[in-house]
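Weekly sync, protein design subgroup
Attendees: M.S., D.O., the rotation student, P.L. (late)

Item 1: inverse folding check
M.S. brought a backbone from last month's batch and wanted to see whether the design step gives back something sensible before we order anything. D.O. pointed out we never logged the input encoding, so this time it goes straight into the notes. Structure tokens as presented (132 positions):
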């Protein structure tokens, strides 16, 4: 893991649920194609990840973008062809490397969760057979 990244638990996530991975989702959206803040918010909403309502929520996205930029995972460039101009973010090779790490980490977490579910189902079966 890159030393500076907080695994989605710092400013970029709530520590649980979908919000925990918000920074990773934002990085993935940027990896798909260079884009800007409001477009990221729209895509998060379309994916069912985060409903952005009001400027306060946009502030959260911009804080995460600033954090990703400080880690060297993305680079911004002003697009003055739009009115008003927008800051378009592009993923860096380091950002792609981190995204690969994040996917491996999620895969490991899925295995742990599958084990949890399997053990829970065993408990249910055991309790169901005891009731008969």
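Designed sequence read out in the meeting:
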């Amino acid at each position: 893991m890159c030393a500076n990244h907080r695994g989605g638990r710092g400013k970029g996530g709530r520590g649980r649920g979908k919000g925990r991975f918000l920074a990773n989702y934002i990085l993935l959206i940027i990896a798909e194609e260079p884009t800007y803040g409001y477009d990221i918010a729209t895509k998060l909403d379309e994916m069912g990840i985060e409903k952005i309502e009001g400027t306060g929520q946009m502030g959260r996205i911009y804080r995460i973008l600033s954090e990703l930029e400080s880690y060297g995972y993305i680079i911004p460039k002003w697009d003055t062809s739009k009115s008003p101009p927008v800051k378009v973010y592009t993923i860096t090779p380091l950002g792609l490397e981190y995204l690969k790490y994040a996917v491996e980490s999620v895969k490991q977490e899925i295995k742990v969760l599958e084990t949890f579910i399997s053990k829970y189902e065993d408990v249910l079966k055991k309790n169901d057979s005891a009731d008969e």
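Discussion: The chain is about 60% helix and 10% strand. The longest strand covers residues 74-79.
Action: P.L. to compare against the previous round before Friday.
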